[in-house]
Structures are given as structure tokens and as C-alpha cells.
């Protein structure tokens, strides 16, 4: 299970970090998505920092298991919030990617919890 944790954590951390970079560089696609979701641009730095913290926590969880589980719970909640935000504005196209990432975060937390 630990090898599963490390492999899936590497994938999720890459996704989180690339998304965080986008939050700070604000490409046109992301700005349009924020308009669609009716979120203020002032949320972008906060969301980027949360994603970086999640990635860091997942990676550090390789050495300290409890932190890995806690980070996975946080990342799961982050993506469930994304699902809810997309549903709130009836942006159904944005729901599946966020839902899949929420499920992946649950798998990460479960695989790390199994190795404590």
C-alpha cells in the first residue's frame, strides 16, 4: 500500500502544483472559469496556497503518516468544495474532473492510513 501511496501522491502533487501555478499566473482560461463560477479573483492566491500546502502535506506524509492522512482529508475537502461550487452555478462540465480528483484524494488517504 505504501508504494501505491507514493505513486498516486506524486501524480496528485503534480496536479496540485500545476493548478497552483495557474492560480498565480492567471491564464485567460482560469480567469474565464472564475467568472463562470462567480468567484472573486482575490480567492486565487488563497486557493493556490491551499493547493501547495496540500501537495506538501501529501509528500511529507511519506515520512509522517498522520500528516499524509490529514493532507489527504484536506485535499478531499478542497475538491468536494470545487464540486459544490461547480454545481452551485450549474457548470456541470466542471464537476467530473473535480469529483475524480476528490476520489483520488480518498484513495491516497486510505492507502496511507492502511500503512500506519
From TrEMBL:
Q: Which Pfam families match?
A: DoxX_2 (PF13564)
Alphabetized UniProt keyword annotations:
Membrane, Transmembrane, Transmembrane helix
- How the protein sits in the membrane? Multi-pass membrane protein
Q: Name one GO cellular component term.
A: membrane
The reply on keyword Membrane is yes
Q: Where in the cell is it found?
A: Membrane
Q: Where are the transmembrane segments?
A: 38-59, 66-87, 93-114
Tell me the protein's name: DoxX-like protein
